[in-house]
Amino acid sequence: MTFDSPAVTVAFTLNGRPARVVTQPLRRLTQVLREDLGLRGTKVGCDAGDCGACTVLLDGEPVCACMVHAGRLDGATVETVEGLARDGVPDALQSAFLRLGAAQCGICTPGMLMSASALLRRNARPTEAEVKDALGGVLCRCTGYSKIVQAVMAAGGALPEAARAEAGQAVGARLDRVDGLPKVLGTDLFGDDFPPADALTVRVVRSPHHHCAVKLGDVESWRRAHPGVEAVLTADDIPGRNCFGVIPPLADQPVFARTRCRFKGEAVAAIVGPAAVVEALDLSDFPVTWTEKPALLTPEAALAEGAEAVHPERPGNVLVRGLVRRGEPETALAADDVVTVSGTYSTGFIEHAYIEPEAGWARRIGDRLEIAACTQAPYMDRDDTAAIMGLAPEAVRILPTSVGGGFGSKLDLSVQPYLALAAWVTGKPARMAYTRPESMATTTKRHPARITATVVATRDGKLAGMTFHGTFNTGAYASWGPTVANRVPVHASGPYLHPAYECRSVAVHTHCAPAGAFRGFGVPQSAVAQETLFDELADAVGLDPLEFRLRNALTNGQPTVTGQVFAQGVGIRACFEALRPAWEKARAAADAFNAASDGRTRRGVGVAGMWYGCGNTSLPNPSTIRVGLKADGTLVLHQGAVDIGQGSNTVITQICADALGLPVERFTLVGADTDATPDAGKTSASRQTFVTGKAAFLAGRALRAAILQRLNARDDSRLDLDGTCLRAGDRELDLTTLEADANGFVLKAEETFDPPTAPLDENGQGEPYAAFGWGAHVAEVEVDTELGRVFVRKLTCAHDVGRAVNPTLIEGQVEGGSAQGLGLALMEEFIPGRTENLHDYLIPTVGDMPEVETILVEDPDAHGPYGAKGIGEQVLIPTAPAILNAIRHATGVLIRDLPATPDRVRAAIKGRG
Amino acid sequence: MAEYLRARTVDEALEALARKPFRILAGGTDVYPAAVGGPIRDPILDISGLSALRGITREADGYWRIGALTTWTDVLRADLPPWFDGLKLAAREVGGVQIQTAGTVAGNVCNASPAADGVVPLMAMDAAVEVSGADGTRVEPLDAFITGPRRTTRQPGELVTALLIPDAGAPGVSDFLKLGARHYLVISIAMVAVVLHRAPESRRIVRAGVAVGSCSPVARRLRGLEAVLCEADAGAPLEDLAQENHFAPLSPIDDVRATAGYRREAARTLVRRALSTCREALA
């Protein structure tokens, strides 16, 4: 029996070996493993048992290590992901995860592997239901779970061989993810996985109110009263400008609020010191006075007459408005011989809920700063952080870590300014990882939308006119609000021919967390309204919903709502056609089921289409790729397109490999280190395969041309790299004979691609994108009509990707994106101050995801590399409206206020009468 | 630094509790989620090593004893009669496998969440709580032990040592239904448990337990319905016996998961379904 014991010694068996640690008895096992023993394969996603990322086996049983205290470890057996492989060779389960694409970002992979291992030891050939029960406690936000379940079921059998691609045949091959091995071994390094050993910990002091006046007291006295605290950082410590934002002219967010906090969770100060000191602090005596003020939490409140301005320089609380107008929609809507439908819709804040909370570390080296953190936008981080620090951009080095999911939110700064300032002021390395509540309360969200739309069609089912008005809650700061407001009018038409169209959007400031980028930038919300209205319109004109869409789908040569005419690459019709067999079969089956049903359970099938522009909207959007050979024969690809799990490391390499004519396995990748690698832009807007991929294609081809010229070889020569000997056809060259440049390259190419766009005029007419991705989903649902509970039975997803560079990775995007679409439709809603954890904010689990069948359509795009188009955001957009249309088919009710939770569905069914 | 004490015996734990109001740590699945982003400041009594408190046994006096440290996985793996099936169904719904492995039956009871999955079937089974203290042991019916959200009659000097379930001495069946907005890892909107025992030689129902969770500050038994069921023939459509007035004990609220009105209706739907399932199993 021990009282007041500061530490205990526990001896246990860890991965088959004896381990002994002296530690705090109440320390979480996650901390013991990660911080005391340096085993960082076990991930921390929530510290609350909600996500399962930290699953380890305790005495053979899966537990969340975040809830196991060190004091109970004595004599126990602990197994972690590090114990699965033997000498770096993955076990059968890990191999299956790698081969079948079950690891995307990889942050949930250790938890999935350990949960599945426990099952497989008990049951080597589990059924799908048994696998789902075993994995039900681990959340994944990337994969949609399908490939994980498949991998667990495949682990006991013979795996397919790894795909191999000869030179020139990588594009189209299902190659293993080039960065996949560390993800399944648990050795991949995410934001919180490799801090310098002596790093101080940073903890931020945040507003407890949605809106308040703030006054800091004597922080220096407070610091002195708390031994060990090395610094308390406030706005006064910022050497540059106390302001940041992803769109520089609209940057408005302070690193530390000085006098007023505009959302719950806004930072006012940061405390820096050793982890043991900082984590133990009770901040109730921190010298700050909060004076709560009335908060504007909805656009309705913020737009009301006399509402206080969230930013005095933006009276009326309007951040930005968007408009696309074509033809005369007023005339079309007033015509006599048309059929009209209209509706008002609402969606809530959606949280990205990546399983890796924001994390990183920084250090000062002389007058430079190095920041290693999870990010989607290294160069933007560099420039904005440099401005905050009053440094030249080149004085800041961003070292992107592996990213445990991003989906748009890691485009914005989070931990970087605090880390930079802490390292700069103290001169010591500094680290921090957001807690789950901190991540959820303070980082950007999908914009809540309130949409009113009207669509008219002729009696024979041709679209005649559409009006759309969307109000978006952009929260306290600008973030990507303007992008949402501009993208929505371009896309709210859907991929259809509209003779008359007007879409207006407005982004409105409130005292909520900033709304920013989330997979689709407002288009998933607008598609909910447009695609469900189309079903009502199809009914009204007596057409099958798929037939109605086919009758109106854009084709090559027809103008979009911005007047853009594509001569090629408009693949929406092919997507709808590809779905026709699944659609007809599922509709007939649902009708037969319902005819035999007593009404308690009803089935329905819905369809929805989508288009989505690849890259920035009418703005420059360049990516640069550098590839070269070193004298020792190393083929180096500077791959700056940050891989957040979607697979850019693999896809960009496949493209470059084929353009050059050497196999993928010859490449050595250098990541998006801003000191070393050219800017490949942000991982956003479904642009990396399309834009960076094209730059990689150009760079690969340029290097090939340089080689052929140097060797005086024919254009069609086959390249071969054998040690330092480079061959082209029958010519050869010893690379060691060449002079290396400053970076060690003896042969090198660097190419930039910026997709051609044209500005939009005052009516939104112009050429916003060089290419669109196209797609459509069919959703099959079952509705428990007495309880309003909706179960999705199957999703069939057709996407025109131009060229499927790696079909396995694209399926992973489709499965994962549709899981997020399912969440948007059925369960997800972030309420500031109320759902800042992963048990009140629900994302789909393995039990919610149905089979997802992906149909890849390849209508090549003239600009894209090998014809490829973007896919990352496209996959999410049609899912929610397809599900809502399926619910309507099943029950006759259309849910216009999302999410379609059981109580809302039930109320609608009762209201139907 | 929080005070920490790891008890090696129940007596040692009780001695400690007699001295000081420790917070009790067993499976950790409630203590740690409440400490996200900060240290645990309460003095902690760690009872996770008290193996004597783990396991399910049938006692000579006609009770089933579920030791306080029995985990939900232990419940799932135990060889138990069919009228425990509802409890096993609930065990599968307590978080994910990770929570079921660590979380204890007594912890679920003592945490006293209105949405505690385990409490509902335990109530329907007439479970009582064995509470030990310096002065001995007392036994209190579960529905009296939990007095409100996060409130029980456990005194600071006391430790829950077991759940006691009477054996009706008659064949029985049970069901448990949990309604949430997703599958796995979900806090329920509503849940119900039904336990029915019939006379050994006839279809007459001799004991009925019906409880509803997440629809009142503490899970409630529907005693009026239980009384009606006790008169019934197990072959009759039992689900039709559930009438509006039987649900009067419920007082659901609006929250992020559902509206009060929906909960009230859903509770009735779930009770009807569970009764229907039990009737079919009994027949």
Automatic annotation (TrEMBL), chain A:
<dbReference type="GO" id="GO:0051537">
    <property type="term" value="F:2 iron, 2 sulfur cluster binding"/>
</dbReference>
<dbReference type="Pfam" id="PF00111">
    <property type="entry name" value="Fer2"/>
</dbReference>
<dbReference type="InterPro" id="IPR016208">
    <property type="entry name" value="Ald_Oxase/xanthine_DH-like"/>
</dbReference>
<protein>
    <submittedName>
        <fullName>Putative hypoxanthine oxidase XdhD</fullName>
    </submittedName>
</protein>
<dbReference type="InterPro" id="IPR046867">
    <property type="entry name" value="AldOxase/xan_DH_MoCoBD2"/>
</dbReference>
<dbReference type="InterPro" id="IPR036856">
    <property type="entry name" value="Ald_Oxase/Xan_DH_a/b_sf"/>
</dbReference>
<dbReference type="InterPro" id="IPR036884">
    <property type="entry name" value="2Fe-2S-bd_dom_sf"/>
</dbReference>
<comment type="similarity">
    <text>Belongs to the xanthine dehydrogenase family.</text>
</comment>
<dbReference type="GO" id="GO:0016491">
    <property type="term" value="F:oxidoreductase activity"/>
</dbReference>
<dbReference type="InterPro" id="IPR006058">
    <property type="entry name" value="2Fe2S_fd_BS"/>
</dbReference>
<dbReference type="Pfam" id="PF02738">
    <property type="entry name" value="MoCoBD_1"/>
</dbReference>
<keyword id="KW-0408">Iron</keyword>
<dbReference type="Pfam" id="PF01315">
    <property type="entry name" value="Ald_Xan_dh_C"/>
</dbReference>
<dbReference type="InterPro" id="IPR000674">
    <property type="entry name" value="Ald_Oxase/Xan_DH_a/b"/>
</dbReference>
<dbReference type="InterPro" id="IPR037165">
    <property type="entry name" value="AldOxase/xan_DH_Mopterin-bd_sf"/>
</dbReference>
<dbReference type="InterPro" id="IPR001041">
    <property type="entry name" value="2Fe-2S_ferredoxin-type"/>
</dbReference>
<dbReference type="InterPro" id="IPR012675">
    <property type="entry name" value="Beta-grasp_dom_sf"/>
</dbReference>
<dbReference type="Pfam" id="PF01799">
    <property type="entry name" value="Fer2_2"/>
</dbReference>
<feature type="domain" description="2Fe-2S ferredoxin-type">
    <location>
        <begin position="8"/>
        <end position="84"/>
    </location>
</feature>
<keyword id="KW-0479">Metal-binding</keyword>
<dbReference type="InterPro" id="IPR036010">
    <property type="entry name" value="2Fe-2S_ferredoxin-like_sf"/>
</dbReference>
<dbReference type="InterPro" id="IPR002888">
    <property type="entry name" value="2Fe-2S-bd"/>
</dbReference>
Automatic annotation (TrEMBL), chain B:
<dbReference type="InterPro" id="IPR036318">
    <property type="entry name" value="FAD-bd_PCMH-like_sf"/>
</dbReference>
<dbReference type="InterPro" id="IPR016169">
    <property type="entry name" value="FAD-bd_PCMH_sub2"/>
</dbReference>
<dbReference type="InterPro" id="IPR005107">
    <property type="entry name" value="CO_DH_flav_C"/>
</dbReference>
<dbReference type="Pfam" id="PF03450">
    <property type="entry name" value="CO_deh_flav_C"/>
</dbReference>
<keyword id="KW-0274">FAD</keyword>
<dbReference type="InterPro" id="IPR036683">
    <property type="entry name" value="CO_DH_flav_C_dom_sf"/>
</dbReference>
<dbReference type="InterPro" id="IPR016167">
    <property type="entry name" value="FAD-bd_PCMH_sub1"/>
</dbReference>
<feature type="domain" description="FAD-binding PCMH-type">
    <location>
        <begin position="1"/>
        <end position="170"/>
    </location>
</feature>
<dbReference type="GO" id="GO:0071949">
    <property type="term" value="F:FAD binding"/>
</dbReference>
<dbReference type="InterPro" id="IPR051312">
    <property type="entry name" value="Diverse_Substr_Oxidored"/>
</dbReference>
<keyword id="KW-0560">Oxidoreductase</keyword>
<dbReference type="InterPro" id="IPR002346">
    <property type="entry name" value="Mopterin_DH_FAD-bd"/>
</dbReference>
<dbReference type="GO" id="GO:0016491">
    <property type="term" value="F:oxidoreductase activity"/>
</dbReference>
<protein>
    <submittedName>
        <fullName>Xanthine dehydrogenase</fullName>
    </submittedName>
</protein>
<keyword id="KW-0285">Flavoprotein</keyword>
<dbReference type="Pfam" id="PF00941">
    <property type="entry name" value="FAD_binding_5"/>
</dbReference>
<dbReference type="InterPro" id="IPR016166">
    <property type="entry name" value="FAD-bd_PCMH"/>
</dbReference>
